[in-house]
Design brief:
globular; eight-stranded antiparallel β-sheet
């Protein structure tokens, strides 16, 4: 049995200058990343069925990130602020720094940057961080060959 240790996920975001090309690596600022995929359930129960019957509908995914705020050029806050209200591409890998494979796939999708927490949370002497959930604005593609 292989156990996956979730401490080296890689995440790249696209920029305002190239909305479809993830190029800003924010991995070193992210303390938590959760990609959730679900499908709408469409009921197709018909006469004679003994229980409800459902089929897969449209995909509805979300990306939740908790990250340390950094306003330096080409970092997480400046990148997100520049694309606020737009859809950008995202690339993720389960274990950054290792080869893409069947056990270490990449994930490609787009997010709608529909909310920001520019000041973030934190008390005196705390590290400022933000916890944001983005709506995935495309299907999530899992690849064993697309490079991170």
């Amino acid at each position: 049995m292989a156990i996956y240790l979730n401490n080296n996920v890689g995440i790249k975001l696209a920029t305002a200058g190239a909305l479809t090309t993830p190029s800003i690596d924010i991995s070193d600022h992210v303390s938590s990343a959760v990609l959730t995929q679900t499908f709408d359930e469409l009921e197709v129960t018909s006469q004679g069925n003994n229980s409800h019957v459902f089929v897969k509908g449209l995909e509805a995914a979300q990306l939740s990130l908790e990250f340390f705020n950094d306003w330096a050029a080409s970092q997480v806050n400046t990148t997100l602020q520049a694309v606020y209200g737009q859809t950008i591409s995202v690339s993720m890998i389960t274990v950054k720094g290792t080869a893409v494979s069947a056990t270490n796939p990449t994930y490609q999708f787009s997010i709608l940057v529909n909310n920001l927490t520019p000041v973030g949370t934190g008390s005196v002497a705390d590290t400022a961080s933000s916890n944001i959930t983005f709506t995935v604005n495309s299907t999530v593609t899992v690849s064993t060959s697309v490079a991170f």
